[in-house]
Specification:
296 residues, mainly alpha, 13 helices, flat
Length: 296
């Protein structure tokens, strides 16, 4: 009688084990459980730290250990956020203020990122251009760029243009230096191999240099969006008709410390959401890279 060729293989014999006698699927599942457990512990720890800080702050204010007029308290800050959300602000609805600031920050961020990437890659690829422009870039980077906000206000007025300009100058330099360094750090063997295969300078730049520098550029994007928000807020604080920075300025002018902190909380939430979106995009783009937990 011929053997049954449809019989399933012996799973015990086909399972690959490591030196410790543990199967690879079991080891992978164990690592996944450990990673999920660690993420849960980290999340709980973050919440515990936040609750502790807010609780101590509230207690100190109510007990008179710190002056509640100057330092306010979390409960009053929450009441201020609710008031703005339900009844609006003196400048209009809260969503309108958030969108106004976010629009200025996003536009400044996009312009600054494009300019930083283009000029960074160009100077990283063309040595002569880097030698000529290098000293000017260093001098401009050494300037305190926040002080340019009043100048932009004089040039462009109270509208969004002055805030966008402030955001651009803050975003440009970190993106530029990362793109420049990423273009310089490309493996020379990759470039040489591409040239051997007949690639021209343009093909080397777009198919070798830019993909290799992408991780450097994305690293700067996380920091640069925060700088864009800072540029928009500072510009609005100095002079604007709408925006979160104007809420901070108006609250300070009326000695409303809860309003100042409430505007900061709103800004922090916007920044965290933007950071989460950038992280999501980075993971989708670099899905081939091992996760940090897996790398360990």
């Amino acid at each position: 009688m011929s053997p049954d060729i449809t019989a399933e293989p012996d799973t015990a014999a086909s399972t690959v084990t490591d030196s410790g006698g543990v199967t690879k699927p079991a080891r992978t599942e164990e690592r996944a459980r450990a990673a999920r457990r660690r993420r849960g512990i980290v999340l709980l720890s973050r919440v515990a730290v936040l609750v502790f800080v807010l609780g101590v702050w509230e207690w100190f204010s109510r007990a008179g250990i710190i002056d509640p007029f100057n330092f306010s308290m979390p409960s009053k800050i929450w009441d201020q956020v609710q008031q703005w959300a339900l009844h609006g602000t003196p400048q209009g609805s809260l969503l309108e203020q958030i969108w106004y600031t976010l629009y200025e920050a996003l536009l400044g961020w996009v312009v600054g990122v494009i300019g930083g990437v283009v000029l960074g890659i160009a100077l990283g690829r063309v040595r002569f251009l880097a030698d000529v422009m290098g000293p000017y870039i260093k001098v401009l980077n050494a300037l305190p760029r926040i002080v340019l906000a009043p100048i932009f206000l004089i040039w462009f007025g109270l509208g969004p243009a002055s805030k966008v300009a402030s955001a651009v100058v803050l975003v440009f330099f970190p993106v530029f230096f990362n793109a420049f360094q990423g273009a310089r750090e490309v493996d020379r063997h990759l470039i040489d191999n591409a040239r051997i295969l007949g690639a021209r300078d343009r093909q080397v730049t777009f198919q070798v240099v830019i993909p290799a520098a992408t991780s450097w550029i994305f690293t700067s994007l996380h920091v640069s969006f925060g700088f864009a928000l800072i540029g928009a807020i500072v510009g609005e604080y100095i002079g604007a008709t709408k925006g979160i920075g104007l809420l901070v300025s108006a609250s300070q002018g009326t000695f409303n410390s809860a309003g100042v902190y409430a505007a900061m909380v709103i800004l922090a939430v916007v920044a965290l959401l933007a950071e989460g979106l950038l992280t999501f995009m980075e993971r989708k783009l670099f899905r081939w890279k091992p996760a940090a937990d897996e790398a360990r």
